[in-house]
Amino acid sequence: MTPPRVLTVAGSDSGGGAGIQADLKTMLALGVHGMSVITAVTAQNSLGVQGAWELPADAVRAQYRSVVDDIGVQAVKTGMLASAELVRTVADLLAGTAAPVVVDPVGVSKHGDSLLAASALESVRTRLLPLATVATPNLDEVAQLTGVRVESEEQLREAAEAVLAHGPAWVLVKGGHLCGDAVDLLTDGSAEHWLRAPRFDNRHTHGTGCTLASAIAARLAKGDTVPEAVATAKDYVTGAISAGFALGSGIGPVDHGW
Ligand code: PLP
């Protein structure tokens, strides 16, 4: 039987822990057929990003058309989009899809390397977020996109409202950078789902955000509602973080096959 097909539009991580590589591993683990539109290639390892090269907009468009026109997609996930031009290119492409879209508005890596030009933020706000079925910003990305700075769990609601003002149907604000339990808030402006997971004493968390967003897309492709998809994805990423392992001499990846 043909499995659900899920497309990631994102950057390549040569170290295999985040980006396209994390997305495809997650999709395999969750039983869907993963496909990719590569937006940028990074030279990357456990120590950080040593180089990044954006692909031409034509190459992004051609990959997308190849996949969608023949194979078809049941869900899409976007990750690293690098520049304003690529954000606009991807938004133009996704405007024509009926599939649910998970937007991970990737800004800066855990090592502090920029994965999105500052000049692209406005296009993310005005072109990409309105197309999202679910947007999955972390607290740094919320601050970059909305100016709202969250320092406590109580402020997650204000952050969510500020993101929803840009038009996604749902937002999952990831509070994992706060102290204590990893608490996220999923809301569409009326329903609220608080997701809580224990914090593990494990620094090997490279690829967490990519993995979560891809897991949500995989579950949506299988027919889950947004709250069901997010709850299952949160369980999957919590397991992957608990099993994160050392690799190289820096920060290792989460374990997709835990
Ligand atoms: N590299 C690429 C290509 C990514 O898409 C991402 C995150 O989305 C990262 C690196 C950053 O991963 P992390 O912040 O989990 O280290």
The end-to-end span amounts to: 25 Å
Largest β-sheet summary: 9 strands, mixed
Q: CATH topology, anyone?
A: UDP-N-acetylmuramoyl-L-alanine:D-glutamate ligase
Bound molecules: pyridoxal-5'-phosphate
Mean pLDDT score? 96
Strand percent estimate: 15-25%
Given the structure, what is the number of helices? 8
Number of strands: 9
Name given to the CATH homologous superfamily: Ribokinase
Low-confidence stretches: none
The arrangement of helices and strands along the chain is EHEEHEHEHEHHEEEHH
Report the radius of gyration as a whole number of Å.
16 Å
Q: Identify the strand order in the major beta sheet.
A: 3-2-1-4-5-6-7-8-9
Provide the helix percentage. Answer: 25-40%
EC number: 2.7.1.49, 2.7.4.7
Catalytic activity: 4-amino-2-methyl-5-(phosphooxymethyl)pyrimidine + ATP = 4-amino-2-methyl-5-(diphosphooxymethyl)pyrimidine + ADP; 4-amino-5-hydroxymethyl-2-methylpyrimidine + ATP = 4-amino-2-methyl-5-(phosphooxymethyl)pyrimidine + ADP + H(+)
Pathway: Cofactor biosynthesis; thiamine diphosphate biosynthesis; 4-amino-2-methyl-5-diphosphomethylpyrimidine from 5-amino-1-(5-phospho-D-ribosyl)imidazole: step 3/3
Keywords: Kinase, Thiamine biosynthesis, Transferase
What does this structure look like?
The protein has 258 residues and is an alpha/beta fold. It has one domain (5-242): UDP-N-acetylmuramoyl-L-alanine:D-glutamate ligase (3-Layer(aba) Sandwich), CATH 3.40.1190. 36% of the residues lie in helices and 21% in strands. Strands 3-2-1-4-5-6-7-8-9 form a nine-stranded mixed beta sheet, with helices on both faces. Strand 1, helix 1 and strand 2 (33-45) form a beta-alpha-beta unit. Helix 2 (57-71) packs parallel to helix 3, helix 3 runs parallel beside helix 4 and helix 5 (139-146) crosses helix 6 (156-164). It is globular. Pyridoxal-5'-phosphate is lined by residues 10-11, 13, 18-19, 42, 44, 79-80, 106, 109-110, 115, 206-210. InterPro entries: HMP/HMP-P_kinase_dom, PM/HMP-P_kinase-1, Ribokinase-like. This is Bifunctional hydroxymethylpyrimidine kinase/phosphomethylpyrimidine kinase. Its EC number is 2.7.1.49, 2.7.4.7.
